[in-house]
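Record 1 of the preview.
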Amino acid sequence: MRRQPLLLAALVVLPSVGFQALPLRAQPATAPASPTLPAPEALPLAPEVKGPRPKSNPSVLAPAAKELPPGLQDLRAPNPLALPVKPSQVRIRELRPLGLADVETLVEVNNPELKAIASQVEQAQSALRAQIALWYPTISLNANNLPTYTGGQQFSSAFTGTGQEAGNTITSIWRMQAVLQASWGLINPTRTPQIAAARDRFEQAKNQYLIGLRSRRLEAAEAYFNLQVSDETVRIGQESVRSSLVSLRDAKARFQAGVATKLEVLEAETQLARDQQVLTQGLSDQAIARRALASLLDLPQDVTPTSKEPSRVVGSWLPSLQESIIAAYAFREELDNVLLNISIANSEANTALGRVQPFLNIAYGLTGGRTRGVQFANRNTPGVNFGNEGWSVENTVGLNLNWTLFDGGAARANYRRQKQVAEQNTYQFAQQRDAIRQQVETNFYELEKNNRNITTTSREVISTRESLRLARLRFQAGVTTQREVVDTQRDLTQAEVRWSTAISDYNKALARLRRFTGLDQVGLCQSQNLPATSPRAPGASQVPVEPQPLIPACRAGSPIGREAMPPGS
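->
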């Protein structure tokens, strides 16, 4: 008769998770009628929905913060090239309590990876501007002789045609020359596809920034939830140690009174050691979680963040599973980037074909020069003017044609290769689409699971706390042993850890759904009036938790012979 409520509860819960209740009586086997299913609706293609070259839409996401609010100005990221060289420069001097909103603001302003992605957007924009410059003419100025001097003297003993001696040949000339050239591509078959590919890469860079912004916000939220659960583990460990100290105190008192055995004292000491391990693990996880959050936020070297908000459920996810999947398909920039990869591959294919098509340029050249000086055979030659000057100007205008008539089939092969790359990206689109749906479904089901776990673990904590209270009363009355108290206390510690973990996992799944779908339809929980300090078990709050000395591992590694060691060793 005691199992009947459990059976009724199972019959109530099973239909809610998608199972059908079994019939009470066996029904006669009948051939099931084959229902006529409606024909599946034809799915539209992604280029028809998003366009063959989708553009980045930053309005689907709240813009990132550019400046820190007044309360966080002192947490600005240090210089990217700063490197501490002294221990005092990395010593923690401040524990700064932060909320979830503060963490998201800091990661948007300080995170170096996000800044690097923003720099990549600017690089892609500069590359696009460089390709657009192909539409403009190029003008260059070349002045190699600005100026040059040619001077020399040459002696020859040969005779000229008139029978006279050639004698000395003297040269003394100053020259200046400059060439101004202009070229404009009238026909360039590779220009348009190159600009199109650069523009698609620019859109990809902007999409990548949105993806990075979503990812950094998610990482910040997950790191903050990890910090909260580590804080809860520390609290649970402290309460467990206090409770174990009370149990050990009672066991020693009963043993001295002669109503308990040494075994009960040893059991209490064993449970105290287990709870101290829980506290030690919690303190370690807390320190690691704090520094992991500080690294993500790129805080100053002497600041460690702490959580100023208690671990609680953030809210409930309002959209259905189907609405979440469709929203993910519409807002995820990863799908747009795959479509842009297809467009880039097609542009590269057109560029490959354009390299064997005719190129036609119009060229203009202006050459100007000036000379001063003279070259003569004999200084005594009559009529020589040593100050001769001359100048020249030359204009050149023409068309230049460049046409590769045969390249061995390289252009056609490159064209086919880029078309194959575009086909490969179509399959990657299907892979990305399926991965997005799996992400949404996995986190949606994880959210439901953690929601149920919060309910069950909270009931477990409440019932285990009451069981521990009754076990203590039974132990003090002498109707039970210390083993029951120890087991119940261990169950309470594990139940509280599972409860805090369920809350953290629920908040993480909720944050992932917001990241993967682009939706922000979350029903916030009503704020509860909680006391300033966490409630503690009666009689346990007055027991201080003393810090345990850190014994070197070489001395504390083996429990054999510990009883024979002198105190303090």
